[in-house]
Amino acid sequence: MTTDNKDKQPQLLSMRQVFGQTLLSLAKTNKKIYVVDADLKSPLHLGKFASWYRHRFIECGVAENNATAIAAGLAKTGKVVFLTSFSCFSPAINWAVIKQSICYNQANVKIIGSHSGLLSANLGATHQMLEDIALTRVLPNMEVFAPIDAVETKKIITTLVRSPHPAYIRLVRPSTPQIFPQKFDFTIGKSHLLQIGKHITVLGYGPILIQAIKAQQKLNQKYGTSAPQLEIINCSSIKPMDTSTIKKSVKKTGRLIVIEDHQKVGGLGQAVASLLFASNLYPRFIHLAVDNQFGQSAKDYQKLYTYYGISLDHLLRAIQKLFKN
Amino acid sequence: MNITVPHPLRSVSQKLRLDLLNLVRDARESHIGGPLSSLDLITAIYFSKIFDLKKDHFILSAGHLAPALYVVLAHAGYFPQARLKNFSSFGSHLQGHTSTDTPGVEYSSGSLGQGLSFAAGLALGDPRRHSICLTTDGEHQEGQTWEAAMFAKKYKLGNLINIIDYNQYQIDGAVEDIMPLGNLAQKYIKFGWAVTTINGHNFKTIIKVLKKAQKKSDYPTCIIAKTIFAKGISFMQYDYQYHDIKNLSEAQYQRAKKELEKPS
């Protein structure tokens, strides 16, 4: 994050690392916590969990379908099961198993999908999961979450351990700026206003939303007090969604930008558009998302954000376009 | 003179076959070949008293065998017999494929290949109880079954029992033509399971192997139960087209009923 004051540079933290640490510390007192893994314990920082809680770490190998139904069966014996993999495998390869064995059977399984979005830049199209939100939010009984940073990751994991519902949690690969202070409350179905503003609502989830904060800084630099004021909503609880906060904001601003590191189809933008239409709210609307394309490799994800139309510059252009009218 | 006394469960399964036939007639559309081939196996699991199904787990992986499970559950008193006539009707808890909405059903199924994994998860999480899974031979074309087979060996799930209804038919024809399974017993042996092949309609044998499987061991058990597709109704037996049936005619019904009522 570039700011004028280098002292204010946010600390970079890894969601994956914090996930591993959080689960390790929760498992100390909560003996019901199990991990069912498909050969990805190292990238998910579960090495310590695997050695400290050997009997609660179930290694399934590269077999996501089996791992998913194992997790469901295990959950039915009263355990809180974390099914860990990359999102390009789970909830992708195993979607039908998630539908039947987890969701329809109401098994208390938390699906952790790491390495989501174009942020897995160098890995190429097969590993840049851009469909996970669509695949999970469509399923009955499933809750869907996407933290913006490592601190929120910790809060979400801690909260979900106490929830009996199937859930999907979208994590990303690189370390990302810390947005939330260590002390804040996460509630299922509630969003967070990262910034209050009256001109344009900017809605999103995951680290890509940090671009909205940067955009405001740039606008302030350029236009001073006449800069458009963004209302930035962190919609980390994608399902259930905080419909009242979103509707209230859009009523106020009349302008909406949804930005996501995901396909347009099935993403948050479509969910919100559907919600607003059904509520007779018709804001001017721009949806910044990957549009019916596969990803590709790049050393730097910024190159991909530019190529696929979801960069900071694209966001600034969208803001200017909406603000002019 | 060689007189064999029929096993007491034989008369139970004979009654349940008739229940199943009536269910199929009332529903007008139902699976039938598989439910009839697997009925003796499910009857033995529920009524042999080897397992306590309030505590042990029975996972019907092949959800389309639902009619067989439903007649057994009704007979066992999980819900009133009269409800069988509402099978697959709107508002009935007896769905076309199994659902946990039905009292006594532990796993909602219909998509093949997942049940053995689910049963293995139960076996792992509940090591003091048995987890009995009923799969079909055709279902073994699903790769996930073999993922589960590897898993059960690795985690030494001695309390997991996979009973395969080996009736040799699937929707489009003979398993051997659609996708041959090769030597299934050898495959399971190579995967590290204890394997027994039996006649899936002989209660004495079924009970014997279930008792053996119940004993404590480090190996999961696979019971390959050779069964007769659409067992008991002569004009349906061995005919894959009776995987399911629409609009059973009155003549067909009467003929089938007569055959099923004959003392076996």
Question: Could you characterize the architecture of this molecule?
Answer:
The complex is a heterodimer of chains A (325) and B (264). With 325 residues, chain A is α/β, with parallel strands linked by helices. Chain A has eleven helices and 14 strands. In chain A, the strands form three sheets. A seven-stranded mixed sheet of chain A has the order 3-2-4-5-7-6-12, with helices on both faces. A five-stranded mixed sheet of chain A has the order 9-11-10-13-14, sandwiched between helices. Chain A is globular and about 60 Å long. Chain A starts with 11 loop residues before the first strand and ends with a helix. Chain B has a single domain (8-261), classed as Rossmann fold, CATH 3.40.50. Chain B has helices spanning 8-27, 33-47, 66-75, 115-125, 143-154, 175-178, 184-190, 203-214, 250-261, and strands spanning 29-31, 57-60, 131-136, 160-166, 169-170, 173-174, 194-199, 221-226, 244-246. In chain B, the strands form three sheets. Chain B has a five-stranded parallel sheet, sandwiched between helices. Chain B has a two-stranded antiparallel sheet with strand order 1-9. In chain B, helix 1 (8-27) crosses helix 3 and helix 1 runs antiparallel to helix 9. The interface between A and B is medium-sized, with 27 and 30 residues.
SSE order and pairing:
The complex is a heterodimer of chains A (about 325) and B (about 260).
Chain A: E1 12-13, H1 15-29, E2 33-37, H2 47-52, E3 57-59, H3 64-75, E4 80-86, H4 95-104, E5 109-114, H5 132-137, E6 143-145, H6 150-160, E7 167-170, E8 176-177, E9 192-195, E10 200-204, H7 210-223, E11 230-234, E12 237-239, H8 243-253, E13 255-263, H9 268-278, E14 284-290, H10 301-307, H11 312-324
Helix pairs in contact in A: 1-6, 3-4, 7-11
Chain B: H1 8-27, E1 29-31, H2 33-47, E2 57-60, H3 66-75, H4 115-125, E3 131-136, H5 143-154, E4 160-166, E5 169-170, E6 173-174, H6 175-178, H7 184-190, E7 194-199, H8 203-214, E8 221-226, E9 244-246, H9 250-261
Parallel strand pairs in B: 2-3, 3-4, 4-8, 7-8
Antiparallel strand pairs in B: 1-9, 5-6
Helix pairs in contact in B: 1-2, 1-3, 1-9, 2-3, 2-8, 4-5
